[in-house]
Amino acid sequence: xxxxxxxxxxxxxxxxxxxxxxxxxxxxxxxxxxxxxxxxxxxxxxxxxxxxxxxxxxxxxxxxxxxxxxxxxxxxxxxxxxxxxxxxxxxxxxxxxxxxxxxxxxxxxxxxxx
Length: 114
Fold this sequence. Notes:
Strand order of the largest sheet: 1-3-2-4-5
Family: Belongs to the actin-binding proteins ADF family.
Keywords: Actin-binding, Membrane, Transmembrane, Transmembrane helix
Number of helices: 3
Protein name: Actin-depolymerizing factor-like
Pfam family, one: Cofilin_ADF
Radius of gyration: 15 Å
CATH class: Alpha Beta
């Protein structure tokens, strides 16, 4: 999986903080986190880490951490066992989007991932 961090020249003009980049790399390489939830800091115009989940947390813990009335980005490290009894792991990118948001917030969120 390739995860490219856009700088200030991204479509929305938003970049990802160094802490956000490091949190993702820790999840990917070191398995320090089960998930990382990101949010847009509108004042600083950048994507920041809102929460990280420990490796012991479950998918239910992850979904309970997502807000009911706001957008978020997240990465989730899913562990599973194949039919041949091999331990595997896949990282999923989650775009949590609430449909009743104001249009300008919705456009900002969409532009950040494009």
